[in-house]
Amino acid sequence: MQTAPNLFKPETCVNRQRAAAPFLPMSRKEMKTLGWDSCDIILVTGDAYVDHPSFGMAVIGRMLEAKGFRVGIIAQPEWTSKDPFMKLGKPNLFFGVTAGNMDSMINRYTSDRKLRHDDAYTPNNEGGKRPDRAVIVYSQRCKEAYKDVPVVLGGIEASLRRIAHYDYWSDKVRRSVLFDAKAELLIYGNAERPLVEVAYRLSEGEDISELNDVRGTAIIRKEALPGWSGLDSSHLDKPGKIDPIPSPYAEIEESCASNEAETFDPKEAEKAKPIVVQLEKKRPWENVYINLPAFEQVKVNQVLYAHASRIFHLETNPGCARALAQRHGDRIVWLNPPALPLSTEDMDGVFGLPYQRVPHPSYGKAKIPAYDMIKFSINIMRGCYGGCTFCSITEHEGRIIQSRSEDSIINEIEQIRDQVPGFTGIISDLGGPTANMYRLNCKSPKAEETCRRLSCVYPSICHHMDTDHTPTIDLYRRARKVEGIKKILIASGVRYDLAIEDPRYVKELALHHVGGYLKIAPEHTEEGPLSKMMKPGMGTYHKFKELFDKYSKEAGKKQYLIPYFISAHPGTKDEDMVTLALWLKKNKFRLDQVQNFYPSPLANATTMYHTERNPLHKVSHTSERVSVAKKGRQRRLHKALLRYHDEKNWPIIREGLTNMGLTKLIGSGLHHLVPADNKRGGRGAGNRGYKGAKNSNFAATRFTNKQFKQKR
């Protein structure tokens, strides 16, 4: 992987003498207290301002502050007029706009497109405090407030809409968000590195229209960047082979050969031997871009949309990704290659910034649920090797694992212990996108730089991948020894296919870090949907369960796995959901929290949902068709089958079983799924009337053998 410059290098600081603000100012009064007459950068966010490293705007704000910029925050502004966007005055450099930690549409609507009435990122969990498509609305208001001030988009909502994308809520393909927002630049992925470069170059006098070469950014142009060679992939083909780069020494070597002396003196030749400087050969993907099918094509042609999605996902490795260009009318969206990942030193710097770790004082005693959930948790890494097709991490953070040092994490534990109000000695999580990928890496630098696999662990774990969990085990053991720490829980999902490669980790987990329940995500039991999710089969789950149960028993603890499942995922047939429901019943699980597949923009599974094609393989007009549950009644059936025990779902399940010719599963016996009517549950059918423990904080509740026998 190309070596990236230190994110905290002094030469990118505009003023190293400025002290950190207690909180980034949200009002003119706070600015005056700091002695500011204006802000260099104003960040507009759809979340409440919580000065904590789990909140994106706090990270970005503190990062820019550390570089010497004066940063203000406008959090959850009233968006129907420009006035709230003028409260801090005109920024000297630019507005930074984000919808917040969540996509505003996913935040506002359920998977059934029903309106939510709460918002965990808002004081008192109040809904309706951010607009639909917040990035677009906020950007437009910023332009109304100060027309000549550049707008830079960022955050997950912008990342997932950087090119033409299927929009689930309108059921159509929308163009890049850059056009609708009328912004000058979009930063995708984790923004620290590109945003610091953008801010520094603007402060040095460059115009934002000149910032065409910043990695991790998307811009609108009339044509491709000069000096770049293009590969046309606007049709159903594979990007053409790149011609070998000619040797830069060819002409020199030829010239030297023709001027050799007629007589040869070894001593003189040794004296005259040139000093050879080995220049790095140009990589074949450098200054090369791929021309994707145009917006006008993918808008109406589902096969081309799937093809564009496949090419897009093959170009996500920062080590070898080529730029992408997609025409929208007479202009193109130009995506520079992804930003280079942060080093451990950089990660430590980001998480070591002077966060107050609490909400801004202006919120008073109001509760912010998202903060309450994470205030005692610690993010130890970024990225995920999994590449699950339904997950947005691939499109946003990418697959490269970026880990903090042990010292940095221990320091944060001590800060929580000493600074955060209400701490009782329990760390609620040491994790991130996954619990157990901390400091895992590719053992081959060359493979890591050039790999285009969509997943490092599917269909099997790559032989280049390091699965040694020693760093994680050492971290857990050291963290437990911190004075004042009573318990450290692991709440992030465990990637169990990796965990079974190192049983020592499973033992450490079961002995010390489970509070009765451990959540994992098999997502389904059947190969059809699992192959479209890029998730391992249930054999892996059973191996993990065997180890987990063994070590829990050795510790004298009653601990249970809490599995998560997805209904109506592309590739799932009605019969697959019935088989999953029977597995749940056989294993005595009752799902409390159930959600249908939610098509987030740009995800591979969303492409399957929209096009009914599989972009995990080469796409053609005759390629594999994917079964998709789109109609409301079928989606409701899939969801109902996960809650086979709920009598409210029995009518639709009975109807579905009848249509599938599976009436043998309707009845009052233990081998039946639902009873023939709603009058009584019978001997276990649906488990009606079961009074066992139920915890709505978990996806499933497992009832014990004793309780099950009592019910029978």
Automatic annotation (TrEMBL):
Cofactor (UniProt): [4Fe-4S] cluster
Question: Domain Radical SAM core spans what residues?
Answer: 370-646
Q: Residue ranges of region Disordered? A: 677-697
Which positions bind [4Fe-4S] cluster? Answer: C384, C388, C391
Q: How is the cofactor bound?
A: Binds 1 [4Fe-4S] cluster. The cluster is coordinated with 3 cysteines and an exchangeable S-adenosyl-L-methionine.
Task: Give the highest taxon in the source lineage.
Answer: Bacteria
Listed transmembrane segments: none
Write out the entry's keywords from A to Z: 4Fe-4S, Iron, Iron-sulfur, Metal-binding, S-adenosyl-L-methionine
Q: Name one Pfam family in it.
A: DUF3362
Metal-binding is among the record's keywords:
yes
Q: Which PROSITE patterns match?
A: MTTASE_RADICAL, RADICAL_SAM
Membership in a protein family: Belongs to the UPF0313 family.
**NCBIfam families of this UniProt entry?**
SAM_YgiQ
Q: What is this protein called?
A: YgiQ family radical SAM protein
Q: Which organism is it from?
A: Agarivorans aestuarii
